[in-house]
Design brief:
Layout lengths: L6 H30 L28 E6 L9 H15 L3 E6 L7 H8 L3 E2 L6 H8 L5 E5 L1 H14 L4 E5 L4 H12 L2 H20 L2 E4 L2 H10 L5 E3 L19 E4 L5 H21 L5 E4 L3 H4 L9 E5 L5 H6 L2 E4 L9 H8 L4 E3 L1 H4 L11 E2 L3 H13 L1 H18 L2 H11 L6
Parallel strand pairs: 1-2, 1-4, 2-3, 4-5, 5-6, 6-7, 8-9, 8-11, 9-10, 11-12, 12-13
Helix pairs in contact: 1-5, 2-16, 4-5, 5-7, 6-7, 9-14, 12-15
């Protein structure tokens, strides 16, 4: 049975909405540039810093058969969401589930696709259109995990018609409407606030239609449960492994900011950091260097005067040398949602962080215990200078930060959520 063809119109509406947001946020030139983007050339699969694949697993077994759908193949060395998706599939495969992945763009991402296959994941590149592919294959899956509401809003109704017995999980990654609303509030932008309200209605509808919804933090879980008391919402956090022998205070120096330019909160944070925060830090620490890592950030701050000491690295496939060498991580985000992977990365590497309250949201972290929190430029700079120079404070926060990752962002945390969300494994 082929599904209702109206799903095509729902998908078109979703893409038009995303284009309208891009036009509003970046102008027509920025939107057209985004439409013209191509996936980056895959990195050398043997390059250091690429996710270490587990031993290949058999393609079949007694576990549940799980299909994951996302906009593209995860690129774990490029963004936090990709690292979370990659590690989620790793956890599922290591648990004995039969994991398959369908990228919405259908593109073979080279080494990134190969890394999934080394985990035992079956990757469907070059697959046909959803109605025909789902009609042929979906009934064979126990679970369908759809990432992001704008894919779910047309895939969930399609899946319900074709395979009503398949458990459907919506992985929000972060609450898009919350991020958009906060951006609108920061800039006092009424048009963006209206767009955020539209996104909220669509996102809540997608949550209501799923069997289970995953969010990355208890804060977002509480927001959804208040808006939709009948919805089943579970917390699936970012997934990280802690560095067991991190470098100590004396082996480190300088500051680290990580974040790609495709995520608007990162661009705003970096501009604020360069314009208002780092010059105050340099006044206190004249020799302090700021290392800036992320795809497209150099272009995003082109034309801005760069304070002395700024090092623009662009995309760095292997972050481990900088994570061992820098002393303080920075997360000066003024809007956003979800859990901040840049904080997880630093904490997991034994590097304490200075963050805004927005960035620290959902991290299970307390000001002065696991990290330092400051929202004004002068207070943020003061916290950075203090943490960079106080070995006792630095050591205490570094240890508490790694404990935080172990306790709240481990693979074991994911397994508990999966067990609560999925049907019982086959015997």
């Amino acid at each position: 049975m082929l599904p209702d063809p109206r799903y095509h119109w729902r998908r078109l509406g979703s893409r038009l909405h995303r284009l309208r947001l891009a036009v509003h946020a970046r102008g027509w030139r920025g939107a057209l540039a985004r439409l013209a983007e191509r996936p980056p050339a895959p990195a050398d699969p043997a390059a250091p810093g690429r996710p270490e694949p587990a031993a290949p697993l058999p393609a079949a077994g007694d576990g549940r058969r799980v299909l994951l759908v996302d906009v593209s193949t995860p690129r774990p060395d490029r963004d936090s969401g990709s690292l979370r998706a990659f590690n989620l599939m790793r956890v599922l495969a290591e648990s004995g589930d039969r994991v398959e992945f369908l990228p919405d763009d259908r593109v073979d991402a080279g080494a990134y696709t190969d890394a999934l296959r080394l985990l035992g994941v079956v990757v469907h590149t070059g697959a046909g259109a959803y109605p025909h592919w789902f009609a042929r294959h979906l009934r064979g899956f126990d679970v369908l995990v759809v990432s992001r509401y704008h894919l779910a809003e047309f895939l969930v109704p399609l899946a319900r018609r074709i395979a009503p017995g398949t458990r459907i999980v919506l992985d929000t990654v972060d609450l898009h409407h919350l991020r958009e609303r906060r951006e609108a509030d920061l800039g006092g932008d009424r048009r963006l606030r209206r767009l955020a309200a539209i996104t909220r209605r669509r996102e809540l509808r997608a949550v209501a239609e799923a069997d289970v919804t995953w969010v990355v933090s208890p804060v977002e879980a509480a927001l959804l449960r208040e808006a939709l008391p009948q919805a089943r919402v579970e917390v699936l956090p970012n997934l990280h492994q802690v560095e067991e022998t991190p470098a100590g205070f004396a082996e480190r120096e300088g500051l680290l900011f990580v974040g790609g330019a495709r995520h608007p909160p990162n661009v705003d944070a970096l501009r604020w950091l360069l314009a208002e925060i780092f010059p105050l830090v340099r006044a206190r620490l004249p020799d302090c260097a700021l290392h800036v890592v992320g795809d497209g950030l150099a272009a995003a701050v082109a034309g801005l005067p760069l304070p002395p000491g700024v090092r623009l690295h662009g995309h760095v496939p292997d972050l481990s040398p900088l994570l061992r060498r820098c002393r303080v991580g920075l997360a000066p985000l003024r809007f956003g949602a979800g859990v901040k992977g840049k904080i997880n990365l630093c904490m997991a590497a034994g590097m304490p962080v200075v963050a805004t309250a927005c960035a620290a949201e959902g991290m299970h972290a307390r000001d002065g215990v696991e990290l330092l929190v400051a929202d004004a430029a002068a207070a943020f700079a003061e916290a950075v200078a203090r943490l960079h120079g106080d070995e006792a404070l630095w050591t205490r926060l570094a240890r508490a930060g790694t404990d935080n990752v172990r306790n709240h962002f481990s693979f074991d945390s994911a397994r508990a959520t999966i067990a609560a969300s999925f049907p019982t494994a086959r015997c």
